[in-house]
Automatic annotation (TrEMBL):
This is Pyridoxal phosphate homeostasis protein. It comes from Lentzea indica. The modification N6-(pyridoxal phosphate)lysine is found at residue 39. Belongs to the pyridoxal phosphate-binding protein YggS/PROSC family. Pyridoxal 5'-phosphate (PLP)-binding protein, which is involved in PLP homeostasis.
Length: 232
């Protein structure tokens, strides 16, 4: 089986899962974006997925992503997300390639991204990353800190708050984490009307996430396999 055939088969299976989950939840399939997590996979795989119809791709390491996106500038409709933990000193380089940063978890990081976006003269879409169990050592801000962080993002004028993201922690049932995230986003919308996105669910739990209102599922393994490369 060629790599294109493999990816096409995987994509069809993931699409079927998403469609079925939406049907079971009484939701429109168009409400859920499939974000292909292409970290550690070569640019050639992104090209194939693009040809198969995907437009949204995610990376988690700035250096790898910068090189990969540079190779793929000809994919003019591709939209790139930064989903990994991000240090403030990487803000300037990340805004060179990312259309959206999904892992903003502190006021200081938001300020660094806003400064970098301002220097480029281009607004940057962001998601708050929320730690549903409060263990911020693994990334994400605590739930009680969400209003302060959301306010800092909105006041910056250079960032557009698009919603929130979480990774289901091992200490909670995924459904519990996803339901809690949906509640966080619901609370944000009154003061931040652009914050409508709920990014939750990955290869193993996307159905659960969709049933709890996820508008974006981040899928790597189910699309690309478990093989990992060391360079783009």
């Amino acid at each position: 089986m060629s790599r294109r055939e493999e990816l096409a088969q995987n994509l069809a299976e993931v699409e079927e899962r998403i469609a079925k989950a939406c049907e079971n939840a009484g939701r429109d399939r168009a409400e859920v974006m499939l974000l292909a997590v292409t970290k550690t996979w070569p640019a050639s795989d992104v090209e194939i997925l693009y040809e198969l119809g995907l437009r949204n791709f995610a990376e988690n390491r700035d250096q790898e992503a910068g090189a990969k996106v540079g190779q793929l500038r000809h994919l003019v409709e591709a939209r790139w997300h930064m989903v990994g933990r991000l240090q403030r000193n990487k803000a300037k380089s990340v805004v060179e390639w990312a259309d959206q940063v999904d892992s903003v978890d502190s006021v200081r990081l938001a300020e660094a991204l806003a400064k970098a976006a301002h220097a480029r003269g281009q607004k940057l879409d962001v998601l708050l990353q929320v730690s549903m169990d409060g263990d911020t050592s693994r990334g994400g801000c605590a739930v009680q800190d969400v209003p302060e962080l959301a306010g800092a993002i909105t006041r910056s004028g250079d960032l557009i708050l698009r919603g929130a993201m979480t990774v289901a922690p091992l200490t909670m049932e995924p459904s519990q984490a996803f339901e809690a995230l949906a509640s966080v986003v619901s609370g944000l919308r009154d003061d931040h009307p652009t914050a409508t996105g709920v990014s939750a669910g990955m290869s193993g739990d996307l159905e659960d996430a969709i049933s709890h209102g996820s508008t974006c599922v981040r899928v790597g393994t189910a699309l690309l396999g478990s093989r990992r490369l060391t360079s783009p």
